[in-house]
Amino acid sequence: MNRPHDLLAALAHDADPGPFALVRREGAAHLDLFTGTVRTADRLADLPLPDGAAGPRTLALVPYRQIAERGFQCVDDGTPLEYLEIAGHTRIALADALAALPQAPVVTTGAAFDVADEEYAGTVERVLAEEIGRGEGANFVIHRTLRATVQGSPLRAGLAALRRLLLGERGAYWTFLVHTGHRILVGASPERHVSVDDGLVMMNPISGTFRHAGATPDRAALLRFLRDPKEVEELYMVLDEELKMMATVAEHGGQVVGPYLKEMAHLAHTEYLLAGRGSKDVREVLRETMFAPTVTGSPMENACRVIARHERSGRRYYSGVLALLGRDGEGRQTLDAPILIRTAEISPAGELRVPVGATLVRHSTAAGEVAETHAKAAGVLAALGLAPQAPAADPARPARYGRSGSARLAPRRDPEQPLAEDPEVRALLAARNTSLARFWLEQRVPGATTLAGLAGRRALIVDGEDTFTGMLTHQLGALGLAVDVRPWQRAAPLDGYDLVVVGPGPGDPGAVTEPKMAALRALLADRLAAGLPTLAVCLGHQLLAGLLGLPLHRREAPYQGLQRDVPFFGTSRRVGFYSTFTALADRDRLGTRYGPVELSRDPADGAVHALRGPGFAGVQFHPESVLSRDGLAVLADLLGHLLARPALTAHGPADHG
């Protein structure tokens, strides 16, 4: 069935038209209609992308459980990787689609979250205390699902919901309905996960949620939201995490553009865009970017472990992606993949699921995150006839949901001036970049930052399960080193490298028998004993400090996504931290079995931010982070110290005292 009027006629008579998808991309005056055959695949690499004329080939529904392809943990619910093998593609004018889609209200019964507010709040508190508080990561997303039963035809209900979303939502990246015969997915996703077009890879980290459902947006409240440290840091953290992914799939990493304000009917978000050139197969790009930190957390691998520990059910398609794969006019692969959030799943039996999640960071409160899950569901719930009975008076008090309702578009403060164009809003957004690393904000000219003396020199980064190593690779490469990365389990052999970097990762450095900690500690001990150039970052720094005899301390308030000015061997550097543990010292120099060590400490509490000795150095912060404005200068100084090339650093040779 390739002709749009055939599809619309079948839908009008409640006939099953077979598998199809209707997609409106952001700003389009039409919907794309895709028809074809639905099949299943085991792996992303199995998705078909045949040669031929320009156009779409495959529309894949990628469930969260595919994260297992990366070796990461998940609650395996058996949800299949389905795809529509596209045989027909036509366009339907938006006005024609709205005229044809059903207008009857959606009737549902039994609407309730599968995890009660009190239980979800308890989970939030445990994650804050047991995971973020113990160094397992910077942020984590925990989901819950609103469930209900649709009365009448599930497909008509989904199509009616699509119509309401097309009329009532704004700012969505994709507004869509996918009907496979096994399920219906309908939603309005605000967020591009990843796209590839003309060799340009783009990602779109979105975080921070301003709720204004059911009322005219309050300008003063929006300005408070834009100044809120919790909201600002939450966006920075997902920006860093997606830069890690871009470091893997783009040849020179990603360039940061923004931030912007994304306005939707019930919410506004803050967002960045990332762009970089890449040449990987788009299926590999999909695999290497599973899944967005905005719906999982960071660092990614351990975030998946945390999710598996705290979520009692699988995620199905929530936090996965829709992925449209095709070819352009020159035969090059294309990809467009929105994140599956703000999306409802309806079974052929009328079972409705609307999963939502909240991002938990060190500033989170249980009541606030419970409220955020209600707010995020509001747009889809309203489209499905599950609008709140009344706005909650307290933003921390969740709305209650009735059995039916209608989608309502919150009126603008001024239809002629979107909130994003307000001069003070624009100024607050622009100010967010003033202290960030220019390395990631500006287009980089190859060779512009190369240091004399590094040509032909090689470095190995040992990955402690944090893909910050990808960003570190690009920075060390920009300084002139040839860099390889290996996981901690397979670090050896180390021969042939001028420098070994023991990288960051989650976990308690005091866990003596934990395999990762034991392996990294042994590697560092061997390097110190042999006097071989070694740099340790974050977790590596903590383990190095322990070998040097310094006590380790767990902070009461974790330094997760925190930016600070710190002393760095005689100068002040603005850098970013992602840590819960720190080494402590009461003096600036230390005698050790490996020689004298110079320390840069916090004058207030003695926390060791950096150390260096004969042939080794460590930093507690992340010089590669977008939060580290001075990160590249820090690395240049450390390379000068470690590789015995005084000309590398403007500060001259280090004093080993």
TrEMBL record:
Biased composition (Low complexity): 391-403
Domain Glutamine amidotransferase: 460-638
Reaction equation(s) it catalyzes: chorismate + L-glutamine = anthranilate + pyruvate + L-glutamate + H(+)
Top-level taxon: Bacteria
Keyword Transport: no
GO annotation, biological process: L-tryptophan biosynthetic process
Any one GO molecular function term: anthranilate synthase activity
Pfam families, per the entry: Chorismate_bind (PF00425), GATase (PF00117)
Residue span(s) of domain Chorismate-utilising enzyme C-terminal: 117-376
Descriptive protein name: anthranilate synthase
Originating organism: Micromonospora palomenae
